Structure formats: structure tokens, C-alpha cells
Amino acid sequence: MARLADYFVVVGYDLDKRGSSDGQGRILQRFPEKDWEDNPFPQGIELFCQPNGWQLYTERQPPAFFVAVLTDINSERHYCACFTFWEEVDNSQPQKSLSSEADEDDDSGILQPAQLFAPKSLVLVSRLDHTDVFRNCLGLIYTVHIDGLNVQLENLIGNLLTCVIPIAGGSQPDQDEKEESLRTITLGAGDRQVIQTPITDSLPVSGCSVAQLFRQLGIINVLYLFCAALTEHKILFLSSSYHRLTDACRALLAIMFPLKYSFTYVPILPGKLLEVLSTPTPFIIGVNSFFRSETQELLDVIIADLDGGTVTIPECVHISLLPDPLLHQTQTALSMVLDPELEIADHAFPQGSTQPSSPKIQDKEIRAVFLWLFAQLFQGYRWCLHIIRIHPEPVIRFHKAAFLGQRSLTEDDFLMKVLDGMAFAGFVSERGPPYRAIDLFDDLIANEVERIRLEEGNPHKMMNHVKELAEHLFKNENPYPAVAMHKVQRPSEGSHLQLHQMIFPHLDEVTVQLFIDHAAAKLRSAPPAVKVEKNCMVPSGPPLGAIVDRNGNVLANSARRLEVVRNCITYIFENKMLEAKKLLPAVLRALKGRAARQCLTQELNLHVQQNRAVLDDQQFDYVVRMMNCTLQDCSHMDEYGIAAALLPLVTAFCRKLGAGITQFAYSCVQEHTVWTNMQFWEAMFYSDVQNHIRALYIEVSEHELPSPDQGELVEEDKCALEIASEQRRLWPTLSKEKQQELIQKEESTVFSQAIHYANRMSYLLLPLDTSKNRLLRSSGLGDVESVSNSYVTNSIAGSMAESYDTESGFEDAETSDVANSVVRFINRFVDKVCNESGVTNEHLKALHTMIPDIVQMHIETLDAVHRESKRLPPIQKPKLLRPALLAGEELMMDGLRVYLIADGREEATGVLGGPPLLPAEGAIFLTTYRLIFKGTPSDPLVAEQVVTRSFPVASLTKEKKISISLQMDQFIQEGLQLRSCTFQLMKIAFDEEVASDLAEVFRKHIHKLRYPQHVRGTFAFTVGQSSKLVVEHKHKEKNQSLNSWQTNELFHGLKSGVLTMGRMNHSTTTLSKNLMKNAKKTIGRQYVTRKKYTPPTWENRGSIQSQVDEDEISVSEEVDQSSLTMSSTIKSSDRQTMSNVVERACCRDYQRLGLGTLSNSLTRSKNEPFRISTVNRMYTVCRSYPGLLIVPQSIPDSTIQRISRCYRQNRFPVVCWRNSRTKAVLLRSAGLHGKGVAGFFKSPNAPSAGPSQADSISLEQEKYLHAIISSMPSYSDTSGRNTLSGFTSAHMSSSDSSDKQRQPKIGALMKQVMGSKEELPGTFSRGVPGQRARVISLSEPRASVKARNTRRGKWGSIRVSGRISSYNPDIGTRLAGKDSPQANGGPSETHFLRQQRAHLYIIGDKSQLKGAKQDSFQQWEVVPIEVFDVRQVKTSFKKLMKACVPSSSSLDSNMTFYRCLEESEWMCLLHKVLQVSVLVVELLDTGSSVMVSLEDGWDITTQVVSLVQLLSDPYYRTFDGFRLLVEKEWLSFGHRFSHRGAQTMTSQSSGFTPVFLQFLDCVHQIHLQFPMEFEFSQYYLKFLAYHYVSNRFRTFLLDSDYERIELGVMYEEKGERKNPQVYKSVWDNIDRLNKKTPIFFNYMFSPEDGEVLKPYSCISNLKVWEFYTEETLSEGPSYDWELIHGRPETTEEAERQDTSAPKSQRKIIWPCYDNKSKVEPDAITKLFQELQSLEVELGQVSEKWKDTWDKIKATQRTETKLEHRHTLSTSLLMSSNLSHHRRVNLQESGVGSSLNLTLDTESSSTSTPSGSMVGGRPSTSTLYSQFQTTESEHRSFEGILYKKGALLKPWKPRWFVLDKTKHQLRYYENRQDKDCKGVIDLAEVESVTPGTPTMGAPKAIDEKAFFDLKTTKRFYNFCAQDSHNAQLWIDSIQSCLSDA
Question: Among candidates 506, 49, 526, 72, which has minimal Cα distance to 264?
Fold first, then answer.
């Protein structure tokens, strides 16, 4: 029973506080004045009476009623029913008391503005929610007051407060019960009300509120709110009606049943408390629409506007909706309830009208739908309850993971959130207990599950069920709908508008209190009404297994998979290891399915029960692998179930390691995060505790230990909850002692389980090798102390853990660290579970003392196991294969066992088809030269292949540690990722047998080898020596030039011929022995004068302030400079010692080009324009230039020394090549120093301040350029006329036709190179006087239009200023064939001048040439271009490597290979270099000289200059020429190979910048476009690209000739080689290989004489070089030729051939595995190979391939001459008459394909002179008809056959020849006939079949002699002489067909 109302309160407007801004209310009276003991008075009621604030009104408002809900501190809800009416207040006299106001006289009938009305509220506070009853009661009190009825208000209130009603009634119809559930009350004013209490208290009462909510918001909106409330979001209702707000909130709570909302719930929130809305916790709150604007800035609140019917969800809020089939079913059901007509809306003849039910019924139907929904969601929940204590109170936990796992809903967001929420926690604690009263929901879950399953697809069945449920709900709310008689008086109509209303009187407290006391005494004397609790056992419903797997995705062939798993396990335990090994991969794949994982645990469990847990090593290994795999593939939630099933198994399976030492499986399956998951351990613990407690009570009931059989029966009979229910029923009947005994038993059961789990956890958390705490460290368990408060509810835990830490006597910090974190973890676990399951404090303390000991004991056991397990022979791991080494290459470390993991390249993984070669298992070897992985694929089906991946240590660009999870055994392994600039990547994971310190040693060794202290430490120098002898050189000083003392000593020594080296220790010597030895050879002694010389240091080199005048070595002072030549400087006695210098590439090339000779005679013609200068022979002028340089004849050496200071790194302009036809020269230099620029192009007319030093230098520079220009024949023609008029007229009259043709070509090129910025005419001014004659008229409007529309390049804008514009705009405009702007805005000339090409173009960096001025007489011109710097090359290369060899496969679908390639911009860089080179080639070809003057003159300059020579001069496209080009331009002219390749410690920081590789790529692009112009093949370029970074040869080491001389590697005598296999020069190696094999030779080589190549440079014409992407896993890179093509292979092949069965003709070539060119060589190589093997077979001395080739070539040439036929000549590839097709764009660079294409080209060039390439592949026969040969060679089978002619023609005998070689059947008139009558191409033959004689066939011949031949075109009938002969023919033709 409960009080209907607890308090009655009168609240009025507080007139005293009237002056303040906001009005306030105050409680005028409350009854009872004392608080009830069981229910204190709620605070703050006055705020809720007027939620919008207390204010006065000028008009009287109608009375209002609503119910607010307040929640007290114990989360009890109080319903405050507020009845508000308005009373008059006199505004003029605020201080008057209320009583005098009531006695005012009647004058105030007329309303005055002074008259105001204040609200007054009557409030009932109750714990029951009977809205209608409250409205009636308060209305009655108001009616009595307003209508002045003759009833005491005190009596009414007294009756109201003493009224007692039952909380809930029963459903039985007997009289008492009816009394209970029906209560008639009266307040004593002639009124009567019947209160119906609900039958079941737990079901909410909703009236019509739910139906109303759906009407207001609609189905979808309410479902959003429903899901939002369940997933704990903030919900705010807005309405202008308070009553509706309350109803909406009530409705939302009603549809959440059986979950109860446990957060802030305020249906009506007063305006003053609006800040509550910014609380961080979830809430359901209602607010009046009046405050709408203040709710706008709430960012995370869902706002439901009841009046407008909208729900607004902020962007940042994500609401998880119901899982899909349920959501749809719920929507359907709701629409059928709310809008039943929808279903038949489209029917032509609708059956009657289907109106929706009345609101009250509809309300219950909607609730029934939600009830049905919850039954669906929570079905089977009771099977996942763990009861861990029964007495004294049940303790129950819900196993969420099991529930979701078994329902296959682990991925469902909504259910996860609901189960994690507070509402569900309340649900479990309320509905968990097994013995209690049950309601509709329990019944639904227990008995209706099957029915609900059947209804899922059938909405009508479902609606029937919903209607049944709705009836239950309605009956619960209205048990007796008939008895609803109310008699309550209402106030008379309009009574509230009466002008004179009584003020509500002050009530007499004493009267009311007497009423209350009297009722209380009566209650005390009455006998207590005992209502029997109808508790019973809560039924659990069908177990989960029965309801699952309807949406669990069952695998189609799962039965077969389970069979495989079972078989494999059986084989393992029967020790049939071979069988098991075969099945294992399939099992590991099958274990991805859930069913297979469960099957595995069940099977293993059976074997444990049969006492088969002790395994041998291999069995153990397999079982562990399967367990790991099972755990690995589990999803986060599913893991619990599987891990839980495996937990007992991992502590059962074991193997014996040694005497008394056993290793259990748990030590091998620790690497899974599930073991570090606290919730997993809790769930496991609770489920075990439940089992033990159940066993405990089964034992108790049996009174003795039953035999296992009985026990099992009982177990089957009752589940834990049923037993618990029974125990709870018996509990009150037990004696105190018995109760205490049970409590103790349960408590000790929990305690013993806690100890057991402390052990288990230490097993799985302590790693086998306790020094490696991988698991805890990775999951961060050691650091969870911060969150411990949330777990530990008891301070013992903390203190115990601390005392343990301080007292534990661990010496070894590492282990103590592991131990501590494990102890802390277990402590936290123990605290949590023991507090929840009520373990006593004494026991908890005992546990905390025990845990450290358990852990320590376990660590000691593990140490022994770890020691022993290391001694175990590894289980059948593949044997480590040792790699073949080069001569002189030595192993630095023994192979470390590793796994090679697949990276981002998918070819090797089998993803793209083909076998999965990776991951592979093997070893990594570090040698002095390479890093080599050699092993076999992990996939057993591919395991016989050998996988090799290697790269030179010197090419390593990045090394980083990674951790890798291996599929094989699921351990997180330590690994390394090693990236090489030879486009290789190794991702390796160390095997567990490799100790981590060993891996560290390995890394250090790599670093040591990669970055030696000095270049002498590289492999090229240490080869052949023992690796231990590698000397660490000290760092050299920075100032590497001679100081004065050393110079003196040096020259003394040179004169006397004796060198005193003793005093010059290494650190101070810069020119060491070798340089002196060679200086002896190279320096002409008599001209070395001794002066004090201190050259600038390396950094200051070239600053103009260096002392130029006095302190210099003037090498050639006393000789007349103009006549100084090389030969005159050197004494005849020393000339022989010069031979070495002369042998250098530079000199050889100069002589070839006729640029200067070293002839003996002094009668050389003075007018030879260039000479070889020895000014740099001591490398004092420019450290990075060669010793001998080509300079103009007229320039003395002293000038050169001065000029060199203006250029960066002193690299002044020198000639490096001369065009033999136009005599134009190519010069190279560095860019100018900043200070030198202004002087370089100084205007001659500018007034100079005096003959300053800079001035004189700039004049000398100018003189130098003039000297170069004057050396050109084109200049000497016009050299006499330096006046402008002469200049222009000469060129106007000259008309060089070729020049005119080339003009636009160069112009276009120039535009591209310079960026084609064109300005409008007239924006430039020329500041140079005397220019007008060269101005060109702009009268044509087209020019300006064109200028406007052209694409603008990257040039900066050029402004006109008073001085000369920032650079002269005419630069390159003449060249580009553009119109030159007018000078000084003068009048336009009417005639055009022919544009004159400058004699010298200087290609310079745009940024360097700002402020530079043009030479006024147009003798040279600057072409400013934008160049990239080396940093761009470096970053671009990094991106290129990542694109070609990605470290992992990209998840981003946008990052495809081509996208990455584009982003690397590598192709753009190639395009720029090629573009500039082609421009220079064009200029040189038209007779202008070019000087390339970019950056420091050793990177891009070198690239451009080399490419120009390669394109212009066919000599450089041969082997010798290319070698010479690289030696001259790259080596002698000082490209910094060591620095750019980061070859030593000093250059490590600068990083790898592949400038040379870029050059080789450009050559490769040109090679692709002109395949017939190069003597060398593409492989040659790849070979160089590989070895220029490999450090195997000394060729590409060091930065300049100077350094090479100093180290003594410059002139290594050939005889010096101690080891014949060790080649110090890459060229020697190439020469040697080239003699052996044609691998470097290009068979298509047939050059044109003097052909200048001009390749396309657009990016679309460039191809990705195969070198970047190809890989050969079978043998590693093929560039260390000796390794791959050495002897061992041949023997292997021979062996294979002996043993193998007959081979098929087909070869399988795997991408990325086989070396394609080796497995399937091109035709010519194959012929060479066959020739060689034939020679070997015949025992002949094998001829060199080159000789053979040359012979064939010679015979071909003679044949060509003899032939006069128009068919294609037999010179297959040697013919050089292909004038039309010099450029062939080949798609593939494989030689085989090139061969076909070339043939196509040739045939087309003869047939179509226009030179368009004919597509389509020629048929076989046309290919062969090119050979003129005698027929007998190709007659495989011949004889006479009768052939039937065409239609109506007779049979005729013909002589038939079957030709296998040409693959054809020819026939002739007779045997002697030479002219073929017809050919049947065998490629077209479809079948050969025995035939029958037809009409006109030869007589008297056996029928079997006939046969038919069917081709694609026609049917041939043949007849042989007899059947035998016919059979022979058929067989021969068949064999011919099959061979094809």
C-alpha cells in the first residue's frame, strides 16, 4: 500500500522580491509540515510550478494543469501535479498584506492599468503517477474555493493526504483482489473516484501518450529517438505545452521497456535551470518552446520539436540504428498499427474500412511492437548470465562477448552500445536473479521464441501476436474497464473570469495535521496487510545454440573443411606427420571459418580427455601452429569464445624437453592480445566459478560425491540458474548455521578459483624469454596504473602491490620489470573479481601476498624451459642454402635465419596468378660486397624453388626496424626493412632462433660496410683482402692544397729526384706519394718557379678577393704565351713519362677530334685554334678538372688562372667536343659566382671607375669568349667587319637554305626550353645604343594576337625600368624566331631583317643570369633556362623507388603505380634534360657553338654535355666511344660519384642522388627510339646502372682525377692484378664478358654515317625503364655475371637431363622469378648457343661469337651486292640501307620482339617508299622466303601424290615436298622442276584424315591409299601409290603439325 499524495503545497508569487528583475515564487503553506521519514520533501518545487519564470500578467489566464517530475538523490521519481490559477494583485500598494487585499471595497470593478494578476499554484507531490486522479483532486479543491461550496478546504486536504491505495493489484477476480486493484476514494465534497492500479507493477503505464508521440513525430523520427535513448545520447523535447512534454517523455520511457532509463530525466525543465543542458551526461529533458533560441548552440543534443513534428540530429552525432532485418520489420509493424489502410490503399475493391484502433488501444499495440522487438534482441540472454554467488545474495554477471558471438552479432554497433549501456546493466541486476516474480517480458523470452522466429517473414502473423500482447498491456492498465465511474464536481462555466474572486485562503495547519495523525494511528492499530510475493523460478527459454546461425554466414563447404581439420588432427596424434604436413596449409586456411575453429577446440579437447596431451616435438609444433592460427583469425569479440575453449588446452598439451623439464603449449601462444584483455579473464573466471558453484550444490543435494555417471545426469538435468533458483527458494527455511556454512563454502570456492586464475594468467602473460616482454609492452599493460581506480574498489590492492615492488629482491631490472607489470595486472584482476563476488578481506590479503610468489616461481620454471628449448634442434626448418660468392667476396657473418616477407610488389605473392613465392624462409647473408637472401617459399606447394634476392651493401639507401606479424606462426617478429637504390627491397623478419643482440650486430655490420670511414674501405679496394684488415683512415684536413713549405719540399725532391717523405705525416700531407710519383711524370720541371703560394681553401675557392697579383704559381711565365704549346713545354727526356696522361680518355678523344695534338714538331701552324694546356697538371687551378684541358690557342695560362676564379669551383669554360662538319665547339663550365656575373656581361660603354681588378678579369673573360668565337669558321667569314652596318648587310644577303629550314625547329625548341614566355610588343626597352638597325617591324597584327594567346611559361615578369631591364629580352627571341620588340619605341621599319644566329650560345641557369647584359655585337647570346637542382633529383628518386618497389601494398586505390610514378616527377626531369640536350644538338648542328654553364658544372652540365655528344657523334654510340665518353665527361671532369652516391661516412648526410643513373635513363630512352644506332644493348646500360652504385669496381669511386691519382688508382698497371678474377675497372670486366658472350651486343646495330639523333622528349614518348621494375628471384640480379653463368649450373643441368623424363616443349616462365632472356633467349642468341654446343659436341675449338658474327655479316654483304632482285635482301639485320626508318618506337625492349619489328620495317620500307610502317605480323612463310637457299636443305619428306584438282578438274600426279623448316607442303610438276606450282601453308591445316576414292580417282589403287587434308581455305583430296605410303605421308604431316 502507498499514500496517494505525500505533500500538498500552496505556492504563490513572492511580492517582497517584486522589485528584482525576475519574479520569484515562494511556498506559502505545505502539509504536512514535518517530512515523512520514508520520503523527504523535494526541494525547488517553486521553480517547477512556473517553468517559464514567475511574472505578473495584465489579464487573468485560465487555470492550467501539468505534472512535473523531480528525481531525488536516490533516483526516486516524484510526480508534482501543479494546478495554477491567477489572482489579482494591486500594483499601487505593493506592501499591503494579503488579508487586507481580500477586504477591499467594490470600487475596483473597472479594470485599471494598475491591476495585475499573479499566479498561484496548488501542488500535489506523490510517488505514484496517476495524472487524472491528481487533476480531479486539485480541480475539486479549486472548485470548492472558486464556487464557494460549503465544504471545509482543510477537510478535503486532510482526506487527500490520508488516502492510501495499493501499488499494484493481482489479476484474480475474487472479491479481495478486486478490492485490492480497485480503490474508490472520496475527498468529502460529494465526489467519488475509482482508482485502478496496474496488475503488474513492473509494466509501465502509458495511457495514450505513446500513440500521441507517434502522431506528433512520425515513425522514423521516433525510432531515431528510441535508438538514441538506448545508445545514451542527449535528447531534448520542445513544445509550447508542458503537459505534452511530460507525455512525450513518458511515452519514450514506455517504449524502452524492459530497459529502464537511468540518466537525467526532466520532462519539464524550468528556464532558470537551462544550463543543465550543457551537462556531459546523457539526458531526456523537455523545455518550453519559449526557450528555443537558447537551445540552438547545443552541438551534441538531438532536438525533437513536438509541435513542428521534426527531429534535428547534429552533424557530430552518429546514432546507431537497429540491425537491419529488425529495423525493417519494426517499421513495417508500426505502419500497420498506425496506418492500417496503407496496405489496401491500392486495392480496387478495398474490404470494408480498416480504421486504426482507438488511441488507448493503439498506444498498447505500438508498445507491443517494441516489446516484440526487445524479445528479438535479447532472446537467449539468460544463457549468458554467470551466477557467481547464490548466498547471501545472488551475484550475477552477463557475458556480453558470448552473447554477441553466439548470436553472430559481434559487428553490430547498436547492440554493442546497448549491452555496454547503464540501462542494460540495470536490466541484468533486476532481471538476472533466477527466483523472483515474472512479468510479460519474461514470459515472452521464455516461451514465445519459436513463435517469434516463425513470424519474422510474415507481417500478418506478427500483427496477431502484437494484438495479443497489446491486450495484455491494456488489461494490465485497466483491469476492470467497466468500473470507471467518476463523480467529481467542476467549477461553473467561466468562473475563473469573475471580476471579484476570493483570494485562496490561508489554511489551518492544525486541522489538517489532526487528520493526518488520526489516520496514522488507525493504520498502526490495523493488522498489517501481508501481500504474498508470487516469486517463482524464472524460465530461461531455449538455449542460444538453437536460435543462432540464421544470420551467421555458414560456409557452403564447411562440412568438408571440418573433415579436413579432423583428419589433420587425427594424423598428428597418430604420428603420420607426412600426411599431416600435406593437410596443414588447407587446415590453416579453413581455420578462417568459425565452425572450423570450434571444431578444432572440440577435437583437441577429446584428445586431452584420452590422456594424449604429452606430444613429441613435431606434434607439439603442429598443434601450436594450429592454435596460433585459430587465435589469430578471431575477431575481437569472437576471440573470447575460442580463446576460452583453448585456455584449458594450452595448459594441457606439453612436450618433454629434458630431465624433469616440460614445456607447455601456453609458452608458444602468448602473442595474442586477448590474453591482455581484462574483460576476457573476468568472463572466463565467472564462467568457471559458476561451474564450480553448481557442482557444489549438486554435491550438497546428493549428500555424497556421486559417481561420474550420476553426476553427468544431474548436470544435464539442471543448469546453474535453475539450481540457484531452487537454493533461493529454500534459503529462508534454512537454519542460521546452515546458511553460514553455505556462504563460507561459496566464498572459498571463489577464492580457490582466484588462485587458479592467478596461475593461469601468469602462464599466459609471462613470456618464455623473460628478457623480451613483447606482449605486455606492446599492449601497454605496464602503464595501466592510471586507470586502476576504476577497477580497484579497495585500497589493499595498491598497498600490497607497492610493498611487493619494494621488497622483491630481483637483481635483474629487466625481469623485475616484466614481473612487476604481470603482478600489477593480476592484482587488478583479483581485486575486481573478488570485490564483485564478495571475497573477505583476509582472503584478499592472502591473495595479494601469494601473487608475487606465483609469478616469481613461474619465472624460474620458464628460465629452465627457455634454456632447454634453445637446445632443441629446430623442427625441420629448411636447410640454409649458401649463396655463391664472387672471387674476393667474403662472408662477414654467418647466415641468420629469416623470413623474406612480401612487400608492395604483388607478382611474387601469387595474388596476380602464379605461385606464391613469398613469404620465403631462408637466411640472410652479409658479405663484404652484398646482402643476400637465399631460401625457399614458405608455401609447401612451391617449396622446391629457390628464392634469391640480393643487392650490393653500397647501394643501401634506407634501413629501418619493423615488427612483422607472420602468418606462419603468428608471432610478432622483429624485422628489418632494407631498401636499395638498385630498386630492390628486403623485408625480413628474424626467426625466433636469432637473438635480438645478434640482429643488432647484423645491423651494425651493415652500417659499417655501407659507410666506410674512407673510400679505401669500400669493396672495390678491400676485395681479396681479409675483411678484418679494413683500415680506418683518419679524416683528411679540409684544406687539400699545397702549403708553401710542402711546395718547396716537393719541388726540391723533384729536382734532386729523391723524395723525403719521412717528415710529412699522413694527417698533414695532402698531395701524397702517388700524386708526387705522377707529378714527376707529368710536370715539365723547368717552368716551375718557386713563389710563395697559399691558394684559397676549398670553401673560399674562387672568391674574387683572393690574392691574384703576387701569390700564384705562374707555371709558364718565361715563355711567350701565344706560342706556348704542350710539346714545347716538355723536355724530350720527360716525354715518355707523359704517355700515361696521354692515354687518358680526354687526350685520346681530343686527338680523335683533332682538337690538339702532342706532335713533336714545333712547326705547328699558329692558326690552329685550340691547344692542349697543362695549366692544371698539378690540379691547382681546378681540383675537379682533368690535368690536360683544351683552351683557345690565343689565351695564355696566366689568364686562365684568373678567369677560373669567376666560376664556381674554379670550373672555367673548356672545350670538350667539336662538330667535325660545322666546326662548332661544345664547351662546359660551372655557373658564375654571384660577384662575377655583373662583370661578365659588363656594358663596354658604361663609364668605369678605373682599371679595377674585377674589371680586368671581366675583360679577360670577354677576351676568352671572343677567342672561342674566333676559332669558328663561320666567324672568320665575317670577322673583319665589326661595324653594325656591315654585320647586318652581310647577313641579310646571305641565304643559307638549310638554315632557313631549321629555323622554326630551333625556335620551337627554344620556346619549350626557356618556358615560352611572350610579352606584348613594346613592353621591353633595349638599353644598348646602336641597336635600331636590328629592330624588326611589328606592323603585322598577328604577332600580338599570337603573343596574347600563347601558354605562359614559368618566367618571372620583366619590368621596364630606367636602367637596363633585368635581363635582355632579346635573349633567345631571335633564336625562337619570334618578333623582336622595338627599341626605345622608335618608328617601325618597313623591311624585315633576317634573323642572325649568334656564334656562341651560353646555356645558363636563369636564376644566375639576373642583371646580365647582352654582347652588343651579337657574337654570343645567353639562353636562360630553369634547371632543377640535385635536391629535386634526390627527392624524385626516393619517390620513384617507392613507386617501383613499394614497401607495402597500398590500401588507397588512388595510389596506383602510374599515379605514384607521376608524383615522383622523374619523367619530368628526364624530359627537361633531353629537351635541353636536343636544343644544344640543334644549335651545334647549325654551326653555332654552345657553352653549357649550369650549377657547379658537374651534375646537370655533365648530363647535358654527354647526351649532346652521344646524339651528335655516332662514335659515342659504340662500346669504345661510350666508355670514352663516360671516362672523359663523368670521371675526368669530376662528377662527384662518391659524394652523390654517399659512399663514405663523410658523405652519408648528403644522401643518395643518382645523377648518373638519370643520364643512363636518358640514354635508354634514346636507345628505345633509335634501336639501330647503338652498338651496345639495353642490358649494357642496366649493367652500368647497377655497378655504378655497387662499389664492386673502382671505376666509379672518388670525385675527381685528382683524388684518383692521390689514391694511386689512376694509372693501375694491368700487370698489377694479383687475382685474375678481380677486375678493378668495370670496362675491363665488360670487355672480358663481351668476348665471351653477346649479352652486351645489339644485333640491330646498323648505323648511318654521321647521323645526328633528335629524340622526342615529351613525357608521353618516355617509357619506364625495365631496370626499375624487373626482378629475378630465381638467381638474384644478373649483373654479377660470373655468379650466375659460372660453372656449377651446367653440371646441375646435365644431372637434371639425365634423370628427367621426356620433357615437353612448353616452358613455364614465371614473372619475377625466371630470367626471361636466359630461359627464352632471342633467335640469334639461341643460334649462337646451339652453335657453341654443337662445337663442343664435335670437339672443335669454339670460335668467338664476334668472329662468327662478323663472318656472317661479311658474307651477307657480298650476297647483297650480287643480288639484283626486288624482293627483300637476305641481309637480315646487317643491311644499312634503311633510310626511312631510323626511329623505331618499340613497345618492349626484348631483343626477340625488336627482331620482328625490324623485319616489318624493312619489308615496309621497300614496299612503301613513303615510309609508313606496315602493321601486322608477316606469316611464317614470308619470313622464310627471304633466304635464297637450295631446296634440298629443307626437304623433310617427298614423293609423288595424286591430287584432285578444283571442281570438275581431274586427278593429277605431282611431286610433293614436305618442308619442316618453312612449315609448308610444296608441289611441283615433276621431281626436276624448280618452279613451285603451289604451296599449302601448314599453319592453316586443320586436319589430316584417311579418305575415300571420289569420281575420276586413279584406278587399281587400294582404298586405304586415299587421304584428305583440310585447311582453313579449302579441302584437298590426295592419293598415294599404296596404303603404306599414304600412312607415311599422314604421319609426316601430323608430326610436322605437332612440332609446331
Answer: 72
Looking at residues 850-874, what average pLDDT do you find? Answer: 82
How many CB atoms sit inside 10 A of residue 1384's CB?
11
Interatomic CA distance for residues 132 and 619, integer angstroms: 77
Where b means 16+ CB within 10 Å and e means fewer, 49-62 reads bbbeebeeeeebee
The pLDDT score that the predictor gives to residue 1412 is 54
The answer to whether residues 486 and 192 touch, using CB atoms and an 8 Å cutoff, is yes
As given in the structure block, the three cell numbers for residue 615 are 606430444
Alpha carbon distance, N-terminus to C-terminus of the chain: 104
Dmax (CA) for the chain in angstroms is 157
Rounded-to-integer distance, Cα 1414 and Cα 1326, Å: 10
Cα torsion 623, 628, 633, 638 to 10°: value is 90
Q: Give the position of cell 631498401.
A: 979
Measured in degrees and rounded to the nearest 5, phi and psi for residue 1904 equal -75, -5
Q: What is the pLDDT of residues 1674-1716, one digit of tens each?
A: 888 989 888 877 644 433 333 334 444 445 667 788 878 888 8
Q: Any idea what DSSP says for residue 919?
A: S
Amino acid at 45: I
549 or 1358, which is more confident? 549
Residue scoring higher pLDDT (1577 or 1322): 1577
Question: Which three cell numbers mark 456?
Answer: 519474422
Tell me the one-letter amino acid at 214.
F
Q: Which residues of 1730-1747 are buried (b: 16+ CB within 10 A; e: fewer)?
A: eeeeeeeeeeeeeeebee
What DSSP line would sit under 1543-1576, residue for residue?
-SSTTGGG----HHHHHHHHHHHHHHH-TTS-SB
Cβ proximity of 975 and 1000 under 8 Å: no
Within 10 Å of residue 160's Cβ, how many Cβ atoms?
25
pLDDT tens per residue across span 410-424: 777 888 899 989 999
What mean pLDDT is predicted for residues 106-128?
73
Please give the pLDDT value at position 1277: 57
Instruction: Count the Cβ atoms, other than its own, within 10 Å of residue 611.
Output: 8
Distance CA 1787, CA 1785 (A): 6
The lowest-confidence range among 220-224, 759-763, 1619-1623 is 1619-1623
Bridge partners, 1919 (sequence order): 1842, 1906
Sign of CA dihedral 1678, 1681, 1686, 1691: positive
Provide the 3-class DSSP secondary structure of residue 1705: coil
Least confident range from 562-571, 678-687, 859-868, 1081-1090: namely 1081-1090
- Average pLDDT, stretch 1575-1583? 95
- Of 53-67, 480-494, 1887-1901, give the range with the top mean pLDDT: 53-67
Between the alpha carbon of residue 123 and those of residues 45, 52, 495, 1315, 1740, the distances in Å are 9, 17, 21, 88, 125
Nine-digit cell at 1? 500500500
**DSSP secondary structure, 1367-1412, as one string:** S-TTTTTTTTTPPPPPSTTPPPPSSPPPPPPPSEEEEEEGGGGTT-
Contact 395, 837 (CB under 8 A): yes
How far apart CA 973 and CA 991 sit, in angstroms, is 7
- Grid cell in block for residue 163: 488516502
Q: What is the pLDDT of residue 106?
A: 43
Partners of 387 in the β-ladder: 396
The answer to whether residues 498 and 62 touch, using CB atoms and an 8 Å cutoff, is no
**Predicted TM-score (pTM) of this structure:** 0.52
Residue 1745 near residue 1753 (C-beta atoms within 8 A): no
- The x, y and z cell numbers of residue 1000, run together, are 643488432
Give how far Cα 1264 sits from Cα of 1170, 1197, 1204, 1248, Å: 12, 11, 11, 20
Preceding peptide of 258 cis, ω within 30°: yes
Rg (CA), the chain: 51
